[in-house]
Write a structure and sequence with these properties.
D-Amino Acid Oxidase, Chain A, domain 2; glycerol-3-phosphate dehydrogenase (quinone) activity; alpha+beta; 3 domains; FAD; Helicase, Ruva Protein, domain 3; glycerol metabolism; 16 helices; binds flavin-adenine dinucleotide; G3P_DH_FAD-dep
Length: 505
């Protein structure tokens, strides 16, 4: 997709219009386009700018959901994890977890062993095992060693959540779908029947009405607030989760480590990601605007306390973090006092011409897409039979670049000069990757490039400010931005970064 389409270039009517370009909307859009529908995806901000770029980045069954009795969700998630590991290597990668077991702390070895046996059974192979204290210390020397009995080792997977969304979006576009970011939708109705959407373009201005046979509301934590939607959406309980991103130099772990928070017994974790380490997460009611989510000082203190208990070799401070980020879980309200007991299963609702979906997990987007298309089937005769092949069209890539951008994009990047392929200082990203995104991935603002096409803004010191002159020259060259436009983008990005991602000092 070299340039972002204009409202005037859209057709007057689509089979399916998806409102919301997070993981669920992107998954539904891609599956619809690959199954022969004329599909349109729109997002009020950038693709993946909502929760789907602020998750813990795990493609996992979710051990803690087993504890809450959510067997179906865990089973679905474990199956999806296995499929994604097979089908999208380079983007969904295996991640070994260690859960240390101590004489003086919970959880006990027996409970963990039972949970992990169920987890293994669901995946169809025995992968978890016990490591004694000596083996644990050889694997991760910084772990608290007092009273250590050993650790349960088990396998899950990790991804770049925003890149997974973007691959779905552009795969849907390659299958003749149309995707447009920075366009807000309100629903058009004829009485009770939803007949299309009114689109408001935040980039070029203007509005346009587009008809649709079926509209899908996949607006995530905002799904119960899409303007003019008929009643029927379940009440959502937005639950915020925050993370610290730490430099590997301070916590050089090779595995993910999970343990229970000393204050309330909730599971917390650290895991290596994009050359840094993520520490998460919290689970608290979010009372503010679901479109403006920031970690609070109290949440970050909670994470520091968790780190201190498990990695006592240094005094952890907020100033140690490279960045912070927070997202809101679009959880369907079930009336539990404790946010962590609310179900993470997805919900779907329907009214004439409209299907809504919310909840669920990053990991289970494909299950959600199948459910939505099954519900839309009666009204959409053009929908071809269920597609059970590989997730993405084209040659299967197995390396990092191919997984993140697709095999043919990776081949193009590898033809760039070696200097353009070298990682930019302190990051895993190269100028070749940034150039590809600028040319092909509908970048509208600098933050699209640095927070979602790449994750440079989360893993480079100071949001990558020191690299901005170099990146600016590339943006000006590829997008034709003049000095004034660059200055505006520069300021917009740093203001946003300081507001959402700078560790408070
Ligand atoms: C802290 C945290 C950690 C998590 N960790 C994991 C994990 O490790 N693994 C996992 O599997 N899951 C995880 N999840 C869950 C997962 O991230 C979410 O379930 C998932 O990202 C939700 O995706 P979505 O597409 O429904 O919503 P979003 O990603 O929020 O997408 C909704 C989109 O709709 C757009 N939108 C809203 N209103 C309009 C409108 N009127 N017009 C047009 N567009 C609109 C928004 O801009 C947004 O981009 C986590 C969630 C949180 C909060």
């Amino acid at each position: 997709m070299p340039t972002r389409p204009m409202l005037s270039q859209l057709d007057a009517r689509y089979d399916l219009i998806v409102v919301g370009g997070g993981i669920n909307g992107a998954g539904i859009f891609q599956a619809a386009a690959r199954r022969g529908l004329q599909a349109l995806l729109i997002d009020a901000g950038d693709f993946a700018s909502g929760t789907s770029s602020a998750s813990s980045k795990l493609v996992h069954g979710g051990l803690r959901y087993l504890k809450n009795g959510q067997w179906r969700l865990t089973l679905e998630s474990v199956r999806e994890r296995e499929r994604l590991l097979r089908e999208v290597p380079g983007l969904v990668e295996p991640l070994r977890f260690l859960m240390p077991i101590y004489r003086d702390r919970k959880p006990g070895r027996r409970l963990m062993q039972f949970g992990l046996r169920v987890y293994d059974l669901m995946a169809g192979s025995q992968r978890s095992r016990w490591l004694d204290a000596e083996a644990v210390q050889a694997a991760e020397g910084d772990l608290r060693s007092a009273q250590l009995l050993g650790a349960m080792a088990y396998d899950d997977a990790v991804t770049d959540d925003a890149r997974l969304v973007l691959r779905l979006v552009f795969d849907g576009v390659a299958a003749d779908g149309t995707a447009l970011n920075y366009v807000r939708a309100t629903l058009l109705r004829d009485g009770h029947l939803v007949v299309g959407v009114r689109l408001h373009d935040a980039v070029q201005g203007g509005a346009r009405d587009i008809a649709a046979t079926v509209v899908v509301n996949a607006a995530g934590a905002l799904a119960d607030r899409v303007p003019d939607a008929p009643a029927g959406a379940p009440l959502l309980r937005p639950l915020r989760g925050s993370h610290l991103v730490l430099p590997t130099s301070l916590l050089p772990i090779r595995h993910a480590v999970s343990w229970l928070h000393p204050r309330d017994g909730r599971p917390v974790f650290v895991h290596p990601w994009e050359g840094a380490v993520i520490c998460g997460t919290t689970d608290v009611d979010h009372d503010g605007d679901p479109a403006d989510v920031r970690a609070t000082a109290a949440e970050l203190d909670y994470l520091l306390e968790a780190l201190q208990a498990q990695f006592p070799q240094r005094r952890w401070r907020l100033a140690d973090a490279v960045s912070v980020y927070a997202g809101v879980r679009p959880v369907v309200a079930g009336g539990h006092d404790d946010p962590s007991r609310e179900s993470r299963e997805s919900a779907m609702w329907q009214s004439p011409g409209l299907i809504g979906t919310a909840g669920g997990k990053l990991t289970t987007f494909r299950v959600t897409a199948q459910q939505v298309l099954r519900a839309a089937r009666r009204e959409l005769p053009a929908l071809r039979g269920r597609h059970d092949g590989a997730l993405f069209a084209g040659e299967r890539a197995t390396d990092r670049l191919g997984g993140r951008y697709g095999a043919s994009a990776a081949a193009t990047m590898r033809a760039d000069p070696a200097s353009a392929q070298a990682p930019l200082a302190g990051t895993p990203y190269s100028l070749a990757e940034l150039r590809w995104s600028l040319q092909h991935e509908a970048v509208v603002h600098l933050d699209d490039l640095l927070l979602r096409r790449s994750r440079l803004g989360l893993v480079a010191a100071g949001g990558g400010e020191a690299l901005l002159p170099q990146i600016g020259a590339l943006c000006q060259q590829e997008l034709g931005w003049d000095d004034l436009r660059w200055q505006r983008e520069y300021e917009r990005y740093l203001t946003l970064w300081r507001h959402r991602h700078a560790p408070p000092v």
